[in-house]
Structure prediction request, 363 residues.
Amino acid sequence: MAVLTQKKKKHNFFAGPAILPVPVLEQAAAAVVEFEGMGLSLLEISHRSKQFSAVMDEAFASTRSLLNLPDNYEVLFLTGGASSQFFMTAMNLLPQGKKAGYLNTGTWSDKAIKEAKLFGEVIEVGSSKEENFNYIPKDYEVPGDLEYLHLTSNNTIFGTQIQSFPTVEMPIVCDMSSDIFSRPLDIEKFGLIYAGAQKNLGPAGTTLVIVNKDLLGKVNRAIPTMLDYNTHIKKQSSFNTPPVYPIYVCMLTMRWLKENGGVAAMQERNEEKAALLYDEIDRNDLFKGYAHVDDRSRMNVTFTNTNPEQEADFLAMAAEADCVGLKGHRSVGGLRASIYNALDISSVEVLVDVMKEFGRVKG
Ligand SMILES: *Cc1c(COP(=O)(O)O)cnc(C)c1O
Prediction:
């Protein structure tokens, strides 16, 4: 099917929705036309069909095996985006009158804090707001009486990433929207992990939630059925119609991850890609990194032109070389190269070549 081949594949540095592996796109495209020789599209079959049940089963099993999940952790594919998890986590895990701690490392943490305040007391244990979130606070105090500590593992907008998760007495609740499956995790530290799919996992439309079920059922407030994690655990994410197509594409991505060595191999690849790009940013006088060196993200590389007036020229030169999605988020400005799992190192090499060429022309 020639229609399935992209004529001019670009080097995709968009932050989200973002790059997916080519074999995943090809299989996803084919399934829209006909799924499993059924004479039907994946889009027009029951979510309770045997064929789609097999997709769900593989999606659950792959999540478990990629992250080595113990039996007391449940996997869910929900809707409403990571943004709905900002309130769902607090609604399900924070009893009235109890406290939760939040580390404020950017726009997304800020939003999570605002939502959690609807349900209980929020202690902001640390914040890098005064430096426009260009670093991850360390050495912050964590009071012993918190129900959980909420972290954002990777700050998509500011390009910072927690390189080593703290050891604390309470479970960590973590927004991993933009670095899920990018590295192995010490899963026992986490009570709940959530990730909107559209950064490092699949298309927009589903949110992966991994939850230690021992933490549930401890709040006494009334929770609407659809917002109660237990509803979705009991029905294996099919209490209502799940987002079948996004889940299918996530399942294909996880299959691709497993075929390519799993999260440990991804970590190696991601470190190599990030080092290549940061080395050029540090070497080339025409560019400057945004985040503190120790906190630099291996997923979203934020940088600026030393002379901001050169930015448009640089973006034009990058576009000539088929590098797209490099404009920074409006709250930081400058440039951002998102280098998620699916991005091959060859794309980073092309970008680095453009930066070198820019140095020769403008330096
Ligand atoms: C994109 C993003 C979100 C918001 O995700 P939605 O699915 O659009 O709600 C939350 N947290 C992080 C870290 C993100 O990168």
Observations:
- DSSP finds nine helices and 14 strands in the chain.
- The mean pLDDT is 97.
- Residues 25-259 form a domain with the Aspartate Aminotransferase; domain 2 fold (CATH 3.40.640.10).
- The first strand starts at residue 11 and ends at 12.
